[in-house]
Amino acid sequence: MSNASEVTQDFLDSAQYRTESILLYENVYGEDFVSPGGRGMARELIGRMHLPAESRVLDVGCGLGGSAFVMAREFDLRVDGIDLSKNMLEIANRKLEAHGLAEKVNLEWGDCLELDCDNCYEAIYSRDVFLHIHDKKRLFSVLLGALRPGGQLLFTDYCCGPEPWADDFTQYVSDRGYDLHTPEKYRELIADAGFTKVIAEDISKRFIEILRVDLERIAGSGLEPPVRDKLAQSWQQKLERSLGGDHRWGLFSARK
Ligand SMILES: C[S@@+](CC[C@H](N)C(=O)[O-])C[C@H]1O[C@@H](n2cnc3c(N)ncnc32)[C@H](O)[C@@H]1O
Fold first, then answer.
1. Probe ligand 1: pick from 27, 33, 59, 84, max atoms within 8 Å of CB?
2. What residues contact 193, with CB distance under 8 A and at least 6 apart?
3. pLDDT tens string 177-211
4. In which domain, by residue range, is 59 found?
5. pLDDT tens string 73-107
6. Domain CATH code at residue 192
7. Does some domain include residue 99?
């Protein structure tokens, strides 16, 4: 496998996930979260998995640990979280200690493409992480291997509309090193890896609603005006790209 196009820990920690950027994102998404819809969306999606208490779940790209904390505290699940950003994990592990959830949750540095565990998990959950990963074939093959037979995969991810895209969206995707697919193409990638019962939903309408609420939150935040205005501008651009159909949001589930 060629890793040449994959983003590295250095790239993430020195650009999109610098500590100050993470804390800004947390201002928008809500405490412990760096993904659209924050805690409310996490709660809803974890509920959809209908997992028995004590099930073992892998949270791929756990970020600040928000979803893992909800899984442990509200759903009585045992969670391993991995993330490639050391900045994220440093904050996440401080939060884990403060929440007193260390018996149920373990958060570690790691690249999900290098997972080394066969038949370990009843479920794999991931929120807006796979946009960073170019080798989707390897990704889904590794995740399939890590699930127990009958286990489920559930994730959300940034997606795109069919090309050609507006220049602004092309630039945005390239600046961040994202690898995006249409929800339909994603469905094929998951099925081709050997998953069954693959469901792909385009939830872009929900994304647009969330972005509008985020914009109100940014406007009402106590952030200094230059920082607040820059953040509002970047969210406004995201909203416009979504309304234009280039930027989409997908929800996916599948079984081993
Ligand atoms: C948008 S954040 C989402 C964080 C978290 N899932 C949440 O909902 O708040 C994407 C996360 O994916 C992580 N990530 C990117 N590539 C990764 C990889 N190859 N392995 C593990 N984590 C990765 C990033 O470091 C970042 O924390």
1. 84
2. 137, 140, 141, 143, 144
3. 999 999 999 999 999 999 999 999 999 999 999 99
4. 9-255
5. 999 999 999 999 999 999 999 999 999 999 999 99
6. 3.40.50.150
7. yes
